[in-house]
Amino acid sequence: MPRTRAQPVTLKDIAEHTGLSIMTVSRVVRGRPDVSAASRRKVQAAVQRLGYIPNPAARQLVSRIAAPGQDRIIGTILSREVVTSHSYFAGIIRGIADEARNTDCHLLFGYGLGDSSESIEYPKMIRDMMTRWIILVGKVSPRFVRQLRANGFSLVLVDMRPPVRDVDAVVCDDAGGAYDATRHLARLGHERIGLIRGPARHPFFQALAAGYRRALNEVGIPPSDALEVEASLSPQGGYDAAEALLKVPARPTAVFTNDDMAIGALRAIYEHGLRVPEDIAV
Hints:
Shape: elongated
Structural class: alpha/beta
Radius of gyration: 25 Å
Number of strands: 8
Number of helices: 12
Helix content: 40-55%
CATH class of the largest domain: Alpha Beta
CATH topology of the largest domain: Rossmann fold
Oligomer: single chain
Order of helices and strands: HHHHEHHEHEHEEHEHEHEH
Number of domains: 3
Distance between the termini: 56 Å
Strand content: 5-15%
CATH architecture of the largest domain: 3-Layer(aba) Sandwich
């Protein structure tokens, strides 16, 4: 579809046309010296061909906030669940920080913005982040994602499927993981496999339960409500859930859960004088 006046050529268009990164295109457009001659020629040719017109106001803003070496800033916004729930996200945040260091990027962190329970007014902190690149870690309001996208931010979502197009996301196959874990336990000979999970309203645990039940059905093990226990996302929650499972007349010979809850489950199992994995696998 031909471009109209309402659709000016952007740096992204030039990047797609040349096969270069937006960062490289931006450096050429701003006259930065740290670009190869070949890349510079490709960008300059694309600028002429596509009719790119720089935005003077944007360039003035960038020149004011992005001194040499300071234009690789990535905003990283952590949802409330990331900070208050389990340790799963700690490894993700560590990976983001490691990769930022390896690529000479700087991270700015925000917390609790865009949670569905809070006002999603465009936060001043995001405006002050001096970046157009934001990583959103954990579940946030879909409206918040749309708002950021509408304001021109390039986004990557972690552990959340994008509610709009043109947004990248890194997500796990939660149902597939639960399916594989349950099938593994079944292959080891277990027929009474317990599931300790968090609140059923959470999409992650809905997927977990779906994968678990699908695996049981495929191997011919009838799902049992007594072997599927909901608990809080903590070692104590795992402990309480394991206590409930161990009181079932035909107690499970294996339990599937996440790391934090497994800590509590192991404590309950040991307190009952049982051995892992001889008496019950976790």
